[in-house]
Design a protein that fits this description.
about 20% strand, about 60 residues, 3 strands, SinI_DNA-bd, globular
């Protein structure tokens, strides 16, 4: 079972998307991915990554 409520570090989100961490920061800035601030770092909800990928697939169809 996948846990969509899990918060990923930017580096972990980059690994899931197979992109650089700078690309993840750009996607956050462009509001393609949502993120939350936790202490002194950013976290990306797994749900946001799934929605982003679903949108890419939909656009490609």
């Amino acid at each position: 079972m996948q846990d969509d409520s899990r918060l990923l570090k930017v580096e972990e989100a980059a690994e899931h998307l197979n992109v650089s961490r700078w690309t993840v920061y750009r996607l956050i800035k462009e509001r393609e991915l949502t993120s939350v601030k936790v202490r002194n770092g950013r976290r990306v909800p797994m749900e946001s990554i799934r929605a982003y990928v679903a949108g890419l697939i939909e656009d490609a169809a």
